[in-house]
Amino acid sequence: MHHLALTPEDNAALTPMLAELAAAYDTIENPELIRRAPVLAKALPSHLLSFLEEFRLGEPSALCLVSGLDVDEAELGPTPGHWRDSQFDSPAFRQEIFFLLCASALGDVFGWATQQDGRIMHDVLPIKGHEHYEIGSNSLQHLSWHTEDAFHPCRGDYVALMCLKNPDAVETVVSAVPDMDWTGIDVDALFEPEFTVMPDNSHQPDPGQESSGDPRIDKLRERSFRLIQEWNENPPRRPLLFGDRSDPYMALDPYHMDPSTWPERSRLAFKRLCEEIEKAMKDVVLRPGDLVFIDNFRAVHGRKSFRARYDGSDRWLKRLNITRNLRGSRAWRPAADDRVIY
After folding, report:
1. Closest CA to 326 of 37, 125, 50
2. Higher confidence at residue 299 or residue 86?
3. What is the pLDDT at residue 212?
């Protein structure tokens, strides 16, 4: 793991900068804050920026951990009961800004019209009634390991998590390409476009989703959900591996894959790949003040089950999607500087 621990001196330097930015903006979703984030990130400690740049370009690991950010859990107050309750007057606004700046040193943050009302920064927390859903807000069911948004051509290069609370030491699970034994895997078969990945449940229509108030945006959102339905009914065939065959990138989500229509060689190669991913799986316990950046091309991730209390003390993370090629999704976004994929 690529790891940097912030020092007391780092936190002392960060505190006034983050407080000044928190006073200048109303919410982490402020478009001007998100637009300026790559420039504002240059004020981060130089050794932190160098550390993130090495992860971005050198690929020394599939997992990058920044630990030690000051988090006052008493100041945070109770874990929200739902992500809809957390956007405004956030008690974690300073930490959110730090998270955004670090992410913006790696690439461009973006959101999905089909997830959390198109927000850029998501909340990851247990929601009552979701205990057994295959979705990040579940609790009693494991969140199966996966590539984030594996089904979509605009999936991010990195998925990032910042821990605010984790009182039960719930484990995030990660399996990375460098830790796997590729000698017994049919890599050539996995590079062939014979596989199908359906959209995951987090992109399904939310009955409680409200109109944006902009007919154009609502129309684009409806188009997104229609496309999700089409991909569920008739998913396009694509490879599971890409890039360098000796050190491949991968994109898969077995819970949302149906091998029944694949060629026999493809099914066997997929089965062997999944077995090796399971063997290489490691537990990562995030603690308050930890930021982890998972290389979405080189690792899969999931989460072990836990019992939520719904009393304000439950696990609470923030999540960001990051791309190194924002232009690659231009056909899916309403404007060049819009960060939401429709």
Report:
1. 37
2. 299
3. 66
**How many whole angstroms separate alpha carbon 311 and alpha carbon 233?**
39
Assigned token pair, 320? 């960001």
d(CA 170, CA 287): 9
Residue type, 127: I
In sequence order, the 6+-apart residues with CB closer than 8 A to the CB of 266 are 189, 190, 192, 194, 195, 259
The Cα 242–Cα 298 span in angstroms is: 10
Whole-model pTM: value is: 0.94
Predicted confidence at residue 288, as pLDDT, reads: 98
Place of tokens 């199908």: 196
- Closest of 220, 199, 196 to residue 331, by C-alpha: 220
259: closest CA among 235, 292, 282? 235
Joined tokens for residue 168: 């039960």
Q: What is the DSSP string of 277-312?
A: HHHT-EEEE--TT-EEEEETTTEEEEE-------SS
Residue that has been written with the tokens 């790949």 in this structure: 273
Rounded CA-CA distance 14/282 in Å is 31
Per-residue pLDDT tens over the stretch 209-249: 666 677 877 888 788 888 889 998 999 999 999 999 999 99
How far is 214 from 208, CA to CA, in rounded Å? 17
Nearest residue to 103 (alpha-carbon basis) of 152, 34, 198, 155: 34
Tens of pLDDT along 177-202? Answer: 999 999 999 999 999 999 999 998 88
Residue 147's alpha-carbon distances to 13, 172, 177, 326, in angstroms, are 35, 14, 12, 19
Cα separation of the two ends of the chain: 34
With beta carbons less than 8 A apart as the criterion, state whether 290 and 163 touch. Answer: yes
